[in-house]
Amino acid sequence: MSKNTYPLKLPTSIKEAAARLAKEDGVSLNQWIASAVAQKVGVVETAAEFLKRRANGASGDRLLQILDEVPDNPPMEGDELPEGWMKAKGYQK
Questions:
Q1: How close are the terminal C-alpha atoms of the chain, in Å?
Q2: Rounded Cα distance, 27 and 33, in Å
Q3: Which residues contact residue 86 at a Cβ distance below 8 angstroms, ignoring those fewer than 6 apart?
């Protein structure tokens, strides 16, 4: 396994917590951080692959076609957005 170095800057509180957890696990801080990064990479890649399979070839273009078919009706009673919500969220109408 090849290894590369990477200068990592962490907030003091995170470094201290990571060092404490590494000590509890009986590994070096470097090993603990490498393991944490590997876990995160695995989670993100697994989620991306899951979503890709779940989409089953769907595209944003088809979504826009579907949305274009939705009638432009006012919301039903009780489904209205609160007054000023669109402006507060930065939407223009």
A1: 56
A2: 10
A3: 92, 93
Residue 22 in contact with residue 28, Cβ under 8 Å? yes
C-alpha span between 36 and 18 (Å, rounded): 10
Q: How is residue 68 written in tokens?
A: 């274009």
For 6-34, how does the pLDDT look when each residue is reduced to its tens digit (9 = 90+)?
899 999 999 999 999 999 999 999 999 99
Measure the CA–CA gap between 42 and 92, rounded to whole angstroms.
Answer: 39
For 57-69, what is each residue's pLDDT tens digit? 787 888 888 899 9
Residue 35 is given by DSSP the state: H
